[in-house]
Design brief:
The chain is mainly alpha-helical and 330 residues long. It contains 12 helices and 5 strands. The strands form 2 sheets. It has a 3-stranded antiparallel sheet with strand order 1-5-4, with no helix packed on it. It is elongated, with a radius of gyration of 26 Å. The two termini are 20 Å apart.
């Protein structure tokens, strides 16, 4: 069965390997460029100062390339589910070739298990290789940008893309078994995967771990730098945002916990034309905000939790596939 599956699927695998090779070469080249520039920027910061401007220029230089590659790595699992998962069984059902196998000594469950295992592992390997390369290439950029919790970088780095690939592939196979029409299964797979990718960072991920709550007094310094939105870390002796994920911030509150956003005092401070006076005016009003955030130290916990969640859903979908193939599927 493994040899037969390889014979049926070798064109797609070889094409995928070629794509990985091309993108991989580009990622290695880009990663070297990012590292060279990163080292140069750190040297200039220590020698001449003006670090915020130099770091901003560094991230601006590579922002487009890293962002496009991030979007690509999010799309790849959906493409795998659409073009590898959905047609894997459905095409056999439409052509009737499944009957030839089922009339031999190979059972339906073994037939499905080999296909799921072989092609599924190929899907995970392809996505994992690209994720590993992108994570390495964008490492210095991500460290300076300090936004690893934002939707695109989080979903395109480290282990979660591998879980997405397994989920998308098995989702396509399961939908194909139930819908039994290749084009319809491909379309539904793509739509459902897109819905999950939107729902995950906006509704599910923020609630995987209870955020840390804190009350931050709005001093003039905090108001000017917005330093109450996360803590700061250190890169080569330079102070940069630590990458804490601010999940939620309240409006500006007074000492009684009331929102002062629409009060006369707030309007009077904001209308002050001199910024320093405006900030002092707000700070003198004894204001604070309630902040809920996920510390940067929880990044790997979120990675493992999300990967585990998708692995669980993948296992459930695989179980549905085995249940379906045991039924009246001729």
């Amino acid at each position: 069965m493994i040899w037969l599956t390889w014979r049926q699927f070798r064109t797609q695998i070889l094409a995928a390997l070629a794509v990985v090779a091309v993108i991989g070469i580009y990622l290695v080249t880009l990663g070297m460029q990012i590292r060279d520039k990163h080292d140069s920027v750190l040297d200039q910061c220590r020698s001449h100062g003006n670090c915020p401007s130099l770091l901003a220029s560094f991230t601006d230089q590579f922002h487009v390339q890293v962002s496009i590659l991030g979007y690509l790595l999010i799309v790849i699992p959906g493409i795998i589910g659409m073009f590898w998962g959905a047609p894997l069984i459905t095409r056999e059902l439409e052509l009737g070739t499944h009957r030839l196998v089922w009339n031999q000594s190979v059972t339906r469950k073994r037939w499905l298990a080999v296909k799921l295992g072989f092609v599924g592992l190929c899907s995970m390997a392809v996505t994992g290789a690209l994720s590993l390369l992108l994570t390495w290439a964008a490492g210095p950029f991500d460290q300076v940008q300090a936004d690893r919790f934002t939707p695109i970088p989080f979903a395109a780095r480290n282990i979660v893309p591998v879980a997405y690939a397994a989920f998308a592939f098995v989702l396509g196979v399961t939908l194909g078994l139930f819908i039994r029409r290749t084009l319809a299964a491909m379309a539904v797979t793509l739509v459902l995967f897109g819905v999950v990718q939107v729902a995950m960072p906006n509704m599910i991920r923020p609630n995987l771990v209870t955020p840390v709550s804190s009350t931050v007094k709005l001093t003039p310094t905090a108001l000017e730098s917005l330093s109450f939105l996360g803590q700061y870390g250190d890169i080569g002796g330079l102070k940069v945002p630590s990458g804490d994920w601010v999940v939620e911030t309240s409006p500006m509150l007074n000492s009684a916990g009331k929102n002062i956003g629409h009060t006369a005092m707030y309007a009077n401070c904001i209308n002050n034309s001199v910024q320093s006076s405006m900030l002092k005016c707000l700070a003198d009003a004894d204001l604070h905000v309630e902040v809920k955030e996920q510390p940067a130290s929880r990044y790997w916990k979120f990675q493992w939790y999300e990967a585990g969640l998708f692995a669980l859903v993948t296992a459930v979908l695989a179980g549905l596939s085995f249940w379906r193939i045991r039924g009246r599927l001729n």
